Amino acid sequence: MQYQRFRESGQGGGNVTDIRHLTRPSRLPNKTPVILLIDDNAIQATIRQAILRRAGYFVIAALDPARALARFQQDEFPAVIDAIITDHVMPGMNGAEFVRELRKTHPDLPVMVISGLDDAEPEYAGMNVVFLHKPLLPDLLLSRLHDLLQQNRITAA
Predict the structure, then answer these.
(1) Tell me, what DSSP letter sits at residue 81?
(2) pLDDT tens by residue, 66-102
(3) How much is the pTM?
(4) Architecture of domain 25-151
(5) CA separation for the pair 147, 132 (Å, rounded)
(6) Positive or negative torsion for Cα 121, 87, 52, 150
(7) Among 24, 37, 103, 131, which residue has the fewest nearby CB atoms (within 10 Å)?
(8) Residue 56: what are its φ and ψ, rounded to 5°?
């Protein structure tokens, strides 16, 4: 994270107080795309995170879609999110519910949904997502993510 330093003059005797104000960069310095990865299965999330990181992406993993949505809406992530990859079946809030809520404030943010359920795809009709079926080979994940980001002119370093 980047820090900006502010100095404030105190009263009497010329005391100086340092105040550090945390500011979030709009993009990472090397323009690495930032991916929010949401999957309640920690093993699958870890594997996908490793694949994406090796391909040059900065990945923020979240296991709870409701918490990820709240953090996203409150702008609590350390960098601007360029795309979201989410699982479909998750406890509490499934992928379709997550995307539906996300679209209220971010209608154009690139989103990829991954599911092992063939009949889940219609739930995303009109939500502007890329839907992929499990099992998903790493090369397909990376090529579809690259295409999704290219459509929005965001590329990996």
Answers:
(1) -
(2) 999 999 889 898 889 999 999 999 999 999 999 999 9
(3) 0.79
(4) 3-Layer(aba) Sandwich (3.40)
(5) 13
(6) positive
(7) 24
(8) 100, 10
